[in-house]
Amino acid sequence: MSQDAAPRKGQRDTVSVTLQDIAAHAGVSRSTVSLVLRESPLVAERTRRKVQRSIKALGYVYNRGAAALRGSRTATLGVVVYDIANPFFGAMVAGIDAALHRQGYVSFLANSEDSPERQQRFLERMREHRVDGILLCPAEGTDPALIATLADWGLPCIQVLRHVGEPPFDYAGTDFRQGVCQAMDHLVALGHRRIAFLGGHREHSATRERWQGYRESLERHGLDYQRLLRATVTRRDGFTLIQQLMAESPAPTAVVCHNDLVAFGAMLGLKRMGLTPGVDCAVIGTDDLEEAALGDPALTSVATHPYAIGEEAARLALRRIADPAGAREQVVLAPRLQVRDSCGAPASSGPAASSGGHY
Fold first, then answer.
1. pLDDT class for 349, splitting at 50, 70, 90?
2. Pairing of strands 336-338, 330-333
């Protein structure tokens, strides 16, 4: 009976050696190691020899059969978001699917519910189904090392809306900081001096960028009033928080909300108190969902272009699949304030339609 060959003395177990291990040992990138293993002519001879020495020193054995299997594409992408019930993600996934459809791809969609453990299970299952890449909106608390793990699995990963780890990485999103700054500038121009921010208690990049915009705007305009209420980003929390705020003395005259769902809840809360949004307290949301233009009053909102973000994320994924060693790319779309009735100012010229794109 034959036995498995043991690693030679001084060498690591071949099963545990990854391309990242070889890259670290040789002082090159993981993509360079991959090119050497595939005998690519793009690698300089000196670099090739250095990588080959590291491969030998670590006892790595290249499994060409497995590599060939990985090389056969499935024309599928995994998409992991954290709140599939949020209409924002419906618009974003529509953009993803439209872009993929044009290239003959389809997507597998999963909802992490902002749980890193649940997210990990979905990613492992997608790997088993041999998707060609991952579009990931990282769950709160995601370990930045996850991106390197996906690379070790041979899965290109495009981060969407949120990002973890240090650049360079592939990313598609919007400038949340600038969006909040636009909302704050508009309210200050209308004469507001007591402006609160509602929603967001998760420590992730999208929330931090919003809070940064709020605090920078207060400082830039010399505003002393600061009320940043942390909460989940739901209608219910908007409904509850606005009533707490309006009971304070002094109460805010305007609120900027983490997203449109919080803003919708805030307007309902004002009405429950017998107050009128846009008259007794200005309300601005973020995302410019289709519902924003249909409210009473119509909601002023920062358009973050979910459909376009989805298209860009899909484009980046297909580009990365075609060129694994190419330069990383970040696409950050510029937000735009869509002025309607809820901030007490005249609406933007033209019909008060949502700018959120296709739904």
1. very low
2. unpaired
Q: In what order do the strands lie in the sheet with 282-287?
A: 227-229, 195-198, 254-257, 282-287, 300-303, 336-338
Coil/strand/helix, residue 138: coil
Q: What's the CA gap between 246 and 249, in Å, rounded?
A: 8
Return the C-alpha torsion angle 207, 213, 214, 220, nearest 10: 160
Helices marked H in 103-233: 116-128, 145-152, 176-189, 205-221
The β-bridge relationship of strands 76-81 and 106-111 is parallel
Edge-to-edge strands, sheet with 157-160: 106-111, 76-81, 133-136, 157-160, 171-174, 330-333
Determine the pLDDT at residue 14: 42
- Indicate the pairing of strand 76-81 with strand 133-136: parallel
Q: How far apart are CA 299 and CA 316, in angstroms?
A: 32
DSSP bridge partners of 161: none
Q: For residue 259, which amino acid is it?
A: N
What's the pLDDT tens digit per position in 140-185? 999 999 999 999 999 999 999 999 988 889 999 999 999 999 999 9
CA 218 to CA 196: how far, in whole Å? 10
Both tokens of residue 326? Answer: 């190419």
What's this model's pTM, rounded to 2 decimal places? 0.76
List the one residue out of 263, 288, 343 whose CA is nearest residue 91: 288
pLDDT for the residue 93? 98
Q: Is the pLDDT of residue 333 over 90?
A: yes
Instruction: Give the residues across from 287 on adjacent strands.
Output: 303
What domains can be seen in the chain, in order of their start residue? 19-62 (1.10.260.40), 76-174+307-334 (3.40.50.2300), 176-303 (3.40.50.2300)
Compute CA 90 distance to the chain's CA centroid, rounded to the nearest angstrom: 14
